[in-house]
Amino acid sequence: MAQQQRFTSLQQWLSWQETLHPSAVDLGLERVSTVADRLGCGRPANIVITVGGTNGKGSCQALLEAILLRAGYNVGCYSSPHLVRYNERVRLNGATVSDQAFCDAFERIDRARDDISLTYFEFGTLAALDIMCHSDLDVAVLEVGLGGRLDAVNIIDPDASLVSSIGIDHTEWLGPDRESIGREKAGIFRPGKPAVCGDRDPPDSIGQEASRLGSLLRVLGRDFQIRINGRGWHWQGERKAYRNLPQPALPGAHQLANAASVLMVLDMLSEDLPVPRSAIDAGLRRMQLPGRIQIIPGKVEQVLDVSHNAQAVLALVDTLRHMPLAGVTHAVIGMMKDKDVPAFVRALEPAVAHWYPVGLPLARALDAAALAEIIGSVTDGTGPPPGFAKMRDALAELRSRVTAGDRILVCGSFYTLAEWVQLNPDFE
Fold it and tell me: Which is it for strands 329-333 and 354-357: parallel, antiparallel or unpaired?
């Protein structure tokens, strides 16, 4: 007699997964490796590229996807977290996966795991791998979640690894400084395989780990170069060069470092994964990634960015500095308790005239009053700004204060943007 399916809807599965494991984060590979072996999903595609880093990994994945699709490959992508719908976490040839595909994968995982407890993230990672293993892919581009060495994605041996940047974040799990964090990020490198670092000033631990593992490390500014030329830019690697490349579709000077790192990965894989110049140009022009300095034009411009640490917000502020603005910037921010909120606010302050701290419907989030107190203590204002328990309360206040030519900046976490996007505000 066939075993009855545990749940029939995606939301039922996800709600149950949130309660399954005693802790939300439980770094380690043994449990997830055991279940993956039982599923038989050890190789999600012919070629696997793993992307990690503190900031920029989502942009690197989006560009890899855009280029490889235009080169004619069947491409699967896994990333987390999502903005609005869980389905965004897995894409097959650019399309998000259906509810039913996730439900089927979750059912297979549930049966394979037996009595092994899995976190929400581990369940999702296994589902992504399982779905890809059933999809006849040429390339899988897997974004590492927290850290690298002990992240569930790291059960897969990649053909190439990319670490986009190393900044201070998730110190509770990764260590207090860039050296310790770099060591964790470099855990996705493999012996004899290409390893690319897009940080111009990486901690020593990146090179040390690459040497210890015997990885083929290439570092931006040392082994491959960028040169800006008018509206375009040049890329120089060890074996080839590209001249007059188009600017990446995503805004910000930091996107050139991401793009250059992607080109280094593709160059090192070119024997098994050839890519024509036309696909590179098309990918750069058409890459898309919601929530990365995403601009919504209008009488009141909206800028949505998932930045949640000081390194990311410095890139955001630099980009905003080069974007003309007739009025002032109103910043709507909501943040998690485990972030360095004072450093984040301090880095963002030069770009902001008015603050709107909001609470988020998560136990991990700072409440609006606590966030307002931090903003008041860090900025040069006359005290804490008013806090808003819900995003719709902040939106109502914004509608009474913004005028044509102003900008609304929404940032601080994926969850902040999700709350904003679901309200779908219009300021016309």
Answer: parallel
Q: How many structural domains comprise the chain?
A: 2
Do both 316 and 281 map to the same domain?
A: no
SS3 call for 9: coil
**Domain housing 356:** 294-423
CA angle (260 as vertex; 258, 263 as ends), nearest 5: 110
What pTM did the predictor assign? 0.94
Burial of 397 per CB tally in 10 Å (0-12, 13-18, 19+): middle
Q: What radius of gyration, in Å, describes the C-alpha atoms of the chain?
A: 22
Contact 39, 130 (CB under 8 A): yes
Give the per-residue pLDDT at 1. 40
CA torsion through residues 325, 331, 335, 340, sign:
positive
CATH number at residue 41: 3.40.1190.10
CB 269 within 8 A of CB 258: no
- Conformation bin of residue 56: beta by default, left when phi > 0, alpha when psi is -120 to 50: left
Nearest to 252 by CA among 327, 311, 168: 311
Read off the tokens for 231: 């509206």
Within-domain flag for 3: no
Cβ-contact 185, 226 below 8 angstroms: no
User: 191 and 114, same structural domain?
Assistant: yes
Contact 74, 139 (CB under 8 A): yes
**Cα 291 from chain centre:** 10
Q: Residue holding tokens 């066939």?
A: 2
If you average pLDDT over residues 224-230, what whole number do you get?
A: 92
Structure-block tokens of residue 204 = 């020593």
Total residue count of the chain as it appears in this document = 428
- What is the rounded CA–CA span in Å between residue 69 and residue 377? 48
pLDDT tens track for 383-400: 899 999 999 999 999 999
Q: Domain with 310 in it: what CATH number?
A: 3.90.190.20
Domain assignment present for 357: yes
pLDDT tens sequence across 233-265 = 999 998 899 999 999 999 988 999 999 999 999
Residue 109 contacts residue 123 (beta carbons within 8 Å): yes
- Phi, psi at 335, each rounded to 5°: -140, 160
**Do the beta carbons of residue 261 and residue 160 sit within 8 Å?**
no
